[in-house]
Request: fold
Amino acid sequence: MYNISARQILSIALLSAFIAAAGVACFDRWGGRLHQPAAAFNSGDETTAGIAGVADPSVATDEQNNIEVFRAISPGVVSISATRQPRSFFDAGSSGGGTGSVIDDQGHILTNYHVIEDADQVTVSLGGDKTYPARVVGRDPDTDLAVLQVTGVRDALKVVPMGDSDHLSVGQKVLAIGNPFGLDRTLTTGVISGLQRPIEARNGRIIEGAIQTDASINPGNSGGPLLDSQGRMIGINSQILSPDGGGSVGVGFAVPVNIAKRILPQLIREGRVVRPKLGVYSRAVSDLRGIRLPVDAGLLVLQLDPSGSAAAAGLRGLSETAEGVPVIGDIITSVDGEKMESQNDLYRVLDKHQFNDTVQVEVVRGDGQRATVPVRLLPDRPQRGTTRRE
Reply:
C-alpha cells in the first residue's frame, strides 16, 4: 500500500478533473460525427417494461385489451397533412395525408416516406382542431420511412413505445391506429397473417421481412403504428394489397419496427441513411442475352468505383485487350454464403451490415476460376448526377 500526501491527492484530483473535462469537450465536439449504434432506439427497456394503463393481456378480456391499448397509445398517434405547391401553370399541386407516431420527447415523429414525398409543407395534428408545422428531418426511400419534428409542444407529446419485430408469430393479435380517409384516430384489430413478406418501395427497392396483417388498413393509415396486445409498436403500416386499387380487403403490410430502430439514429442525425456498398455497377446474369458466360446465375461486374470497397479488394470489372477485345470481369455468385441472382439479393445482404464489416464475396473469374475475396465495406456517398451503385 502506498502512502499518499494531501498535496499528491489534490494534484491527482485536479489532473483527473482536467482529463474528464477535456474528454467531455472532445466528445461534445466530435462525438456526433461518429457512427451511432443501432441500439439507440433499441435499449431493451421498451420490450420488457409494462405500459401504464394496459393490463397483462393474458388476464384481460379481448375487449378490455382493445380499449386499454387505444386509450394508452392513441395520444401518441398523430395526423399528418402534406401539401405540394403547383410546379407550373398546368400543375394544380396536390395534398394528402397519413399517420405518424411520436417516438421521443424531442417531438420526432416516425411515418412513411411516401406520406411526405415531394411535400412543400407538412403539418401535424396531435388531436383536436389545432395543427402544428412540422419539419422533415430525414427520409429513407429504400425502407419507405421518414422522420418529422414538431417543436414547442413538448408538454403535449405522448411517446409510442417500440417493441421487437424479430420475435413475432403468425396468429398473434395486432392493433392498428391511424387516420383512414381522414377519420381521426381509428382503431382496427386483427392478427399477424404472415411474416417475412418482401414488399416493394416506390423506388423499386425490396423491403425484406414485412409483416402481413388482416387488421383493416386503408389510405390514411400509412405511417401509423401496428401494435401488439401490450401496446408496443411492432411495425409501421405501409401498404395494402387491393385487386381493384381501392380499400382494404384484409391484406396489409407493415415495415418491421426493428428496421426503423436500426436507421432512426442516422436519419435524425444526418437526414438520410448512408449504407455500406460494394462499389460495383453490375447486371444480373439472367438478364443478359447472347453473351456466353461461365455460370448461369450471378451478378456480372460491369464497372468498379475506383474508391469503393470492391476495387480496394481487387475485384475486376469489364476491360478490353490492347486490340480492343472485351474481357469479361468477375461474376459475383454469393456474398457471405448467400446466392446472388439479382440486385435485391445484394441489397438484402448489405443491409445487414455496417461500415468496416468484412464480407466474403465468392466470384467466378472470366476464365472460369473461382475465388473468395474478403471485402471490407466502405460508406458510399454518391455525388449528384451519378448512377446508383451497390
